[in-house]
Amino acid sequence: MRLSARIKCFKYLVYAYMILISVCGSAQLVIGAFLLWTHRQYSPIVKNQFWEQFAALIVLGLISQLLCYLGWISTSRKHRCYLGTFCAVLVLFIVILFIVSGWAVATKANLIVPAELAIEASFTEFLSKSLSTDQTHLWNRLQRDFHCCGFNGIHDYKKVGVPWSCYDPINAKVYSADCMHVFVRSIEMNMVRVAVVAVCSALIQSLGIFCVIQLTMLLRRPILMLPNGDNHSTRVKPSYEQAPLQLPTHHHSNPASQSSSSSSTKPKPAIAPKPVLTRVDPPVIKPH
Hints:
Blueprint: H1 3-42, H2 52-77, H3 80-110, H4 112-128, H5 138-146, H6 179-205, H7 209-220, E1 223-225, E2 231-233, H8 239-242, H9 255-261
Antiparallel strand pairs: 1-2
Helix pairs in contact: 1-2, 1-6, 1-7, 2-3, 3-6, 3-7
């Protein structure tokens, strides 16, 4: 395959790869924004904790869009320096995605104790202020939306009475689940979603690194145009390899050739022959 055809092929593959990165970045933005918005509705119950992973997913989605723009511009201009920078930043970005995924998994494994303490403190404040009749209170909304009742169950309302948010409006029955485990399980599932989205994005965005590297290597090779219209890559040789070895040549004067070429070219001066010494033999002395 000719070099120009190979460059064109990998160029369109990199374009498709940029579209894939943009799709992954959009997915990170949407999922991260939804998880953050859902969590922020009830974040005061856990003292505004466990939201950093959702915000990190949103930031990574924005960075994906910026990387897509950089890769698209670098490919369209066939700029090797920009393509190399894009590839290096992309590798670093994929590593960060794996780190965020591990961060979310570690948070899920260790959030039970701080989340339980924060939820218990919030529920104690809810009972002490006798706000069970306030329909807009956060705990009433939590019990209504998560179909749960109390911190550890319905027995937490023995002294103040069961609030309306603990009843199922369809069956008129009290929810049996306790809000502590339901809410903590919801946060854990959100952390799992962050980890899955980060890992999937990292794996998908690592598929096209080979295409970017191959295009960068192809753009490094110069194109040699042949007389028949084909173009091939060639290695640039140093100057000492390109210059042929100049050997001394001796021109013998030829009167016939000089007379025939005197009309077109100026004759070169003849080189004077070197003087040759006459050999003198020593006298031979005959014996008498």
